[in-house]
Amino acid sequence: MDLKTLRELNEARTARRAAILLTDLADGSARVIHEGDEVVGDLSAAVAKTFRSGVSGTVEADGRSWFLNAHLPPPRIVVIGAVHISQALAPMARLAGYDLEVIDPRTAFATPERFEGVSLFADWPETVLQERPLDAYCALAAVTHDPKIDDFALKAALDAGCFYVGALGSRKTHAKRVERLAALGASQAQIARIAAPIGLDIGAASPAEIAVAVLAQIIGAFRSRGLAGRGAA
Question: Mean pLDDT for the chain?
């Protein structure tokens, strides 16, 4: 790999941007494809599938053999609210391969004893997300039921293009949330992306069951990125 290509991959990694190192196995030539770049021909479907799965491998396309080496940022789950759902979700997310962090300014809830081994920030989302900005490889789950804590984080997630945005609460609660987010400048298209009530509809009742439903919904959103309006190539 030449220095220019290595530098380009390192820059993408630092910026948490997905990239694929595409190598022509016939002549060894290689180039970097960033997520969102236009790719023509049969290779396009293989590139899109690799960005979704993160799995590297060899493909035959356009009469040639290619090796696609995927470089995806690790998906990150940001939970707003140090509640029982968050406590159950943390070990599940770790087992599924997702980094998880919890943000809650309520120091009675955000304690190391309740979240042992979890990245925990006992501060307001406005402060934490300024230092640790969201991006397209983040999922945000707002579960405090407190607009003063949840709303800023939800708007930040929508603006950052997070692959998943979910919020706890009934449909009535969400209707009021929609009004507040619109007043903050969120578009109707952005607001429509929020999963509310949060989690897959599996009849979850306990915090642990809700955590299962939320994680399943997050995984589904991550693995279906880029499939809106097209077939699952």
Answer: 93
Tally Cβ neighbours within 10 Å of residue 146: 14
Which bin fits 203, alpha (ψ -120 to 50), beta or left (φ > 0)?
Answer: left
Mean pLDDT of 60-71: 93
User: Residue 26: which residues within 8 A CB-CB, separation 6 or more?
Assistant: 64, 65
Q: Cα torsion for 159, 162, 166, 167, to the nearest 10°?
A: -40
Domain ranges of the chain: 3-71, 76-223
Is residue 229 predicted with pLDDT exceeding 70? no
Mean pLDDT is lowest, of 27-31, 111-115, 225-229, for 225-229
Q: In terms of CATH architecture, what is 76-223?
A: 3-Layer(aba) Sandwich (3.40)
Q: How far is 204 from 208, CA to CA, in rounded Å?
A: 8
pTM value is 0.86
Residue 167, CA atoms < 13 Å, CB-side half-sphere:
28
Question: Looking at 49-123, which runs of residues are DSSP E strands?
Answer: 57-61, 64-71, 76-80, 99-103, 119-121
Smallest Cα–Cα separation from 199: which of 187, 209, 184? 209
What are the two backbone dihedrals, phi and then psi, of residue 194, each rounded to the nearest 5 degrees? -75, 130
